[in-house]
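Consider the following assembly input.
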Amino acid sequence: MPVTKWLVFIVALLVWAAYFYYMDQWIMATQGLPVGADMMPV
Amino acid sequence: MTFIKVMGFSVVLLAFYAVYAQLLPQVEPDRSAPVEASTDGLDMAGMIALGEMLFHGKGTCTLCHNDLGRAPDLLQTDLAASFPERLADPRYSGVSAGKTGAKAVEGYILESMRAPSAYVVAGFGKKGTDDTVSPMPVVDAAPIGLSSVEMNALAAFLQDRAGFDPTVPLPSADDTPVAQTPDAGAGPAPLLTSGQDIVDEYGCAACHDLNGSGADIGPSLYGIGKRMDRAQLIEAVIDPNATIAPGFEPGFMPSDFGDRMRGAELLTLAQFLLELPDTAPALPDPSALPVATTVTEVIDNYGCAGCHDLEGSGAEVGPRLNGLGARLSPDGIRTAILDPNASIAEGFEAGLMPDDFAQQMADSEIDLIVDYLVNLPE
Amino acid sequence: MRIPVLLSLAIAAFALLAPDLVLAAGEEMATVLEGAPQPSRLDYPMIGGVSARTVAWSMAQMHLFLAAFVLAVPLFAIATELMGVITRDDRYDNMAREFMKITMAAYSLTALVGGGLLLSLLVFYPHLMGYMVKVFRGQMLIYAALFGLESITLYVYFYSWDALRRGNRKYYHMSIGLMLNTVGLTLMFIANAWVSFMMSPAGVDATTGAVTGTIWEATRNPLWNPLNLHRFLANIAYGGAIVGGYAAYMFLAEKDPAKKAHYDWMGYTSNFIAILGFIPLPFAGYWLMAEIYAYSQQMGITAMGGILAWLFIIQAVLIGTIMLAANYYLWSGLMRTDRGAQYAKYVKYIAVVIVGGFLVWVTPHTLILTADEIQRLGGTHHKILGPLGIMPAKNTAVNLMLVFTFMSFQLFYRSSRVPVVKWAKAGNMAVIALYAVGIANIVGAGIYGYITPTVYKVGASVPQVVSTLSIIIFAVIIDVFMLRGARSEKVHWGRMTERSQYALFVLPVAFTWLMGLMGYIRSSLRTNWHVYTIMKDNSPEAYIPSIGEAGNVITAITLGFMAIMVFVFWLSRLGATKQKGTS
């Protein structure tokens, strides 16, 4: 059981990471702001 | 018992909120009564200055015409290039469409204030209207409510910025006076219209020999008209360290008069100074001067706020006076006025403050100012 | 029972005797061509050294506090009553009745202060009131009549509770309650029309202010509906908070464990109602703000970019304390179940995040410093703390606070339910992963916003909010499936610390102050106008007071209100106390 538990954890991590990554990209794109643009310190 | 405990708890929590509200920057409102200044006899330079004042003040233009992108930033864009472009734009069909020259620009500016939607700069229209409707309020209606003289002054200011000679008509005696109502928020102080008032407000006489002050920290202002022309004089006020008169040191005169004074005030002040006589009038007998009976008169007569930060004057030649009562005893304050070099506050220099107030001031005046400073809050 | 009825009759009589009101209602045509009065500074009555504005402000705010409470409680009283009918659990019915009991005590005070408000406005601002009467004419009489009806329905609703408790009679009773709420809401909508008319006048000539439209046109001005919704939601949150304060007070004062359990449960329910009303408030506020911008860009900028911008920092502090208190209350609630205790070990980590977030939130960007202090600090911003003052840091802080508050709530919710589905362990892992990735995304977007130019700073705040919402939504969805048929744990109501009750009491105090603050902002938006762009305020007090000055007035009014409320709580306890030997 512990093995399955951690397996689920890692899979879930990946799934959520993908979700948040694409959500970020989509939101920035709809605002006309490409993700990863010049990071000029201000 | 529960009653007392719960109430006590509420009081402590509320005290925290109240104290936090005190800790934030306090924007002190302008509580002055409305004043009206006649524009009769204003020359074109005065109109431009008035326009600049309105642009930053009553006209509320800078709320949107700034670098935040709500409206074209009129102070940054190259107006000399953009006005001709706009008049020639096929999307523009207003009064000056297709025309060129200063008069056409005047018509365009005035039209844009009365009917902002006549021409909308690409990208600045209301959302969804494809740049056909302007979000700008009509300037001659409430809440802005500029008069026609005021709009002319704004047009003159913008024409001047674009490098044209202003073509607007000068105001006459029949025009409605420029109303200076106190700003509901952080408003500028009322516009000063006499040279003497400006000299008093900004405390010039504290350092310069003026009004018989005999001060010698800066050069005497009598006969300044012989030594400088109008432009040099204005430069010397707003950028004092650019040229230093022989025998004087740089860094003493505050360099922020350009920000603190309004355009119209600067012009009035320059005129006043240019017209001063060549030499100081014979020093009046101190006993002949009427003795000041209010603290305001004392501060004005002796120009304290010219060097000290007092009620927001912002000067920093001498230490800040607000909150002085917490730092010095009443006797300490008295000594500091009568014998200023006896003890010098950290970070300031000795020898700058006049040491003859004991002779200049009446005892009652000294009592007034000491009493005032003791109780002056931070 | 008699005092408010007499009061409402007195107000109706006053309306009849005041010729202005009656004439305005009857002869509409006579007023059509006349514009808004333009009194000069000297036309404003000066009475001794009394600050007219402070008097009118205090009266209006106090009336609003009481009215908001008195209108809101019947709303959830009837909802609770319905719960009682549906679940056939008498506890709900008893609680609904007890809600109404507090309202009854506050009702006559509401009328009294309302009369005081009317009087102070008539005395100090006669021209404005004259104009308002011209615009709204007969509506003011309708208001007076409705007020009488409100009194009658309120008293009948409360006193018929036990007589109409069982069977079909219960539905008669609930119908009375429904009528009470209808009348109450109508009263609020009418009053809102007057207030929103002053901000965004409609139905009058745009230059002179002469009445050109119907009463309905003036009522249905651009800001009326946004204000209606905002106040409706805020009233529910506020009413819940005050009733929670009542429950906390009673819990503290009570010695009998059974009664303590009852008030603990009442406090928990009220707190829940308050938070439920509170969550949609920012969205209603956003709508109101958007409508203000649409109506007048200048007004919008005055609120968000001008001198009032600092007030939103105080608002942040208030909401911060509310969140701290609500979290603390939830953590204390874990002790009500034996299972909850095992979650207690996580509380300290959540607490660190919430307190840390709160501190970041209150860090001001620009400090007011003397020249000497600037020298010692080496600049106007602190080297280490300065960056915490800017927007990305604050956004990150607030989103983390929200996520962890939700986590507190989830722990509390789970403390009384044991999942029985097979995949419970895997489900937990998925939720933990969700939190981990979501929080990482919020922090990452914060850092990204911090090192990029301003447009990106603003842009990066959106994914942060969406991350927060995503965590909440997905966690709720997973929980719904995971807790299907969950075994419920015995909840020991009353097993709460005294300190937790003070946390519950933070809510009414902070809410009241917050409402006072928002009232100050809303009124200040008109700047130096009585009726924006139509009737100028030329009184000596037309300026916007500084934050500190306003803070003092708000604090004083709130203190007065809390004193009244705690006194009312004390009274209602006194009413239930019997001297030994009497029956």
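The longest helix of chain C spans residues 52-87. Ask yourself how this observation constrains the way the partners meet.
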